[in-house]
Amino acid sequence: MPNDVAYTLTFNDISPEEHSLVGGKCASLCEMTQAGVKVPPGFAVTTHAFSAMLDQSGLGLEIAHMLSGIDAGDVDSVDRASQAIRIHFCSHRMPASVESAIRTAYQAMGDNVPVAVRSSATAEDLPDASFAGQQDTYLWVVGADDVVEKVRDCWASMFSTRALTYREKNGIANEQVLMAVGVQKMVNARSAGVAMTLDPRTGDRTRVVIDASWGLGEMVVSGVVTPDNFSIDKVLGKIIDRRISDKHVELVPDTARGETVEREVDTARRTSPSLSDDEVFAIVSLARLLEKQKRCPQDIEWAIDADLPSGENLLALQSRPETVWSKKAPSDARKYTTGTLGIVGALTQHINK
Amino acid sequence: MTQHKSVFPNPFDIKAPSGAEDWQEMYPYYLLFQPHQRREDEQKFWFCNNQHWPVPLRPFDTMMLEYSEKTLGQYNTRHLLIPPANGIECKVINGYVYHAMVPVAPQDIEPRIPQFLDRAGYYFANWTKLLENWETKVRNAIALMEAIELEALPEVVPVEWVKEGRGHDNASVLMENFDRILKVFHDIWQYHFEFLNLGYAAYVDFFGFVKDQFPQIPDQSIAKMVQGVDSILFRPDDELKKLAKLAVELGIASALKGNDAEGILAAVAREPKGKTWLDAWTAALDPWFNMSTGSGLLSTDKRWRDDLNIPLDYIRNYVERVQAGDEIMRPIEALVVERDRITGEYRDFLDADMQAVFDAKLGLARVVFPYVEDHNFFIEHWSMGVFWRKMRALSRILMKAGFWPDEEGMFFVKRTELREIIWDYCNAWAVGIPVVGDGIWPAVVEKRRKMIDALSRETPAPALNNPPEEITEPFTIMLWGVTTEAVAKWAGAQDGSETGLSGMAASPGVAEGVARVLRDPSQLKELLPGEILVAPVTAPSWAPVFGKIAAAVTDIGGIMSHAAIVCREYGLPAVTGTGFASGRIKTGMRLRVDGNAGTVTVLD
Q1: A168 and A316, same structural domain?
Q2: Does ipTM surpass 0.85 in this model?
Q3: Does pTM surpass 0.80?
C-alpha cells in the first residue's frame, strides 16, 4: 500500500479535505467530533479502500461489463445485474492491505467491541434524504472477521436495484460513485433520550428540554415509557423544571445474542432520576454546541454509555433541525413601540386585549 | 338581606381582637371603612400590604401611610396622568394596611394618553438632568430638616429677643418648627414618587416585551438584565465591609469584641492605630449609617446611627469572614460581566429588527430603573432617619412635660392629637400653669400600647372581599407579587385546602436547611450559619446576614423586592410573596426551598 493512501481514518482525525473520502454520514460524524461533540467512537473505511477493491482484483472491470447491458426501464434486467454484482463482490477477496487496515482500526477500538457497520455514500451519490435506509446497515457486528465481511457487504449494497435505478434516472455514472463505510461502536446506553434546543410547547428558545429514560432511547422515542423531563434555562444554566416519572421498562443490549431486549426496571430505579444534574448539564452543553454549529434549533438523540468513563460517556447519536417552530413566521418587530409610547402600550396592554 | 360569602373576609364583618376593641380611635376617620361607603368598598378587592407595614400601625406612624397614599396618588392622577391607573386607596383594619387600586374608567384612558406622553415623555427624555435636580432637592430638604431644632421651652424668653423687639416667643418657634418639619417632610414624600412609578413603568414595559419573546424566561433573568450593580443602596453595607477589612489590616479586630458600643469605641481609641479606624468610622456615620433595620417608615425601625451596636455587630461578623479568608467585597466586575453575558445571550436569540426593540426598551429601563433602587436610601433611610430623630427629640421634650412616661409615648398619639398636645404644652408654659394633658395622655398611651400588642398577635387576612378574575394591574404584580396565582393560593389557605407553600421564584437554586423565623430585625443575631431565613419581609440593612444564610423565604415581595435582589447577588435561592410562610413555618423546621419553582416544602 502506498504510504499516502489511507484506507481507514478514525472520526477524530479526518481533515476537511478528506471529507470526500469518507462519505456524507462519516463526514458529519467527524464534523461533530471536531466541534467537541462526542459521538460513538469509530472509523471510516475510505473510498481509497473501495477503489483498491475494485482495482486490484479486476472486479471493477467485471462490474462495468455487467452494468453495460442493463436497461433502466427494465426492472428485471437491473435486478439481475444487481444480484450478479453482489455475488461477484463476495467471491473476491479484499486486498490484503485494506483488510489489515480495517482489522487494525477495529482492534484499536477494544477487544471484540460490538459495532454497527454502515455505508456512507459520497457526495456524487444519492442525497441523504432519498437514500436513507436503502443501503445496508449491520448492527451488533462483533470480531474483526465479521467486520471485514460486513464492509464488503456494504460496498456491494451500492449496487442494489434501487441505487442503480436512481443513478440511471439521474444520469450519474456508476464509475463516478465511490463508497465509504462507517464502523461505529454500538452504544451500550445506561440512559438515553432526546433533547430539543427550544421548548416544544411554547417555542421558547431560551430553554433546552430533555426527555430521558433508562436504557436505549427507543423507549422514549416510541412513547412506551413516560420519560423523566427536564427543562433547563440556557442562559442561567439552571434546571427550572424537573419531573421524574415512573419508568417501568427499558431496552438494553444483549451482547451475547447481538440484539436488544426489553426488560422490567427494578423498583428502586423506576422512580429515581435517569440522569444526574451533571449529566443534564452535559446534555445542555452538547445541545447548545450543536445548535450553534448548525445555526438553527436542533432535535438531538443522545445516550449515556455504560462502557465509557463518567464525564466522557455522553454521546450524540443524531442531530436534526427542529421543524415545527422553525417553520412559523417570526413575530413582527413593528408591532412594538418603544420609548414613552411603548410604556403606554405596556400599561394599557391588558385593557386592549 | 342574604349575602353570598366572599372569597376573602368582608371588611365590615371583621371583629376586633380581644383587648383591642377600641382600635379605631387610633386612626383618622378616612382610613377606616365607613358604613356610608359600604356598598362601594365591598365591591373593591383589597390586599394586605405587610411588606411596607408589617406590624400594626402606631397612631403617629399612620402619618407615613397618609403621606405615601396622597403623594403616590398625586403623581399617577394629577402630575403624569398614568393612562390606566390613578392612585392606591388605603384603609386600616385591626392596625394592618389594605390597598385597593383605583383604575381609570375605560373611556377616560384614551384621552389621558396625549398628556401622559407630554408629561412622562419629558421625564424620560430628560431623566438624567431631572434626576440631578431631584438629588439636589432631596439633599437640600434633608439639610433643612436637619437644621431645624425642636427645643424644650426655656424658663424665660431670651432677653435679646425681648430687646430686639421680636415680639414672639419660643413656643411659637417650637410650633412653627414642628410645622416646618412636617412641610419639608411632605415635600420629601412627593419627591419620593416623582420618578418612582415611571421607573417601574419602564421596567414593566421591558418585562412584558421579553416575556412576549421568551414566554418561559424566569423573571429573575429579566431583573438581572435591568438591575444596577452599583446601587447606592449597597453602599452602607460596603462601608461596613470596608471597616471590617480595615480593622483586620490595622490589627484592632480584637478591640471590637463585646456588646457595648461605647466601650468598644473607647477600646478602639486606646489601640495604637485606633484613630485611623475611628476616623473612617466617623466618616461613614453620615449619611451611610442612617440605614434602618426595617422599611424605615416606622417609629419602631431601628437605625444604625441610633444604635451603634447594630453596625458593630455586622462589622464583627465581616471581620470573622475576613479572618477566615473570605472575599467579602461585592465582585462588581464579575457582576457586570455576568449581566452583560446574560443580556447578550438573550439578545442573540432575536433577529435584527427585534434586537432594535430590545435595545431601546432595555436602554430606557436601565436609565430609569436605578432610581427605583437608589431612592430608597435617600428617602426611606436618610430622610426618614433625620425625621424620626427629630420626632424622638420632640417626644422627649413632651415626656419631660409629663405627657407620657417614655420616649415611645408620642408615637401612640395621632398627628392631629399631637398638635393639641403641643398647644397644651405651650399654653401652660405661657400662662404659668401645669399642663392639662399629663392627667390624660399617659393613660391613653398605655391603653393604646396594649391595643397594639393585642393587634400584633393577630395575623391579618391577606385580602378582603372577592379578587378580580385576573390581576392585571402591573404595579400590583411587580411591587407586591400579587398575581392571579398568588391570590388563588391565599384563597386556598383561607379554606385550608392549600398545604404547601409557594410564592415567586425570586432567585434560583435549591437549598435545604433549618428554618429561622424572624419577625423583627432585633432577632437577626439569632441566625446561625446555614439556616434558612424566613421573615415577613426583609430590608436593605439586613444585607449583612445574607452572607450566612442558605436561602430566604418571605411573606411579601415580588421579583424586585429586597430579598430577591440580594439573594440573586449572593447566589442564594429565594422564594418571596408566599403570603404566610412566617406564620406557618416555625423556627427549627427543616425546609427545602426551591427558588426555581418558587416552592417551600417542610421536610419533617
Answers
A1: no
A2: no
A3: no
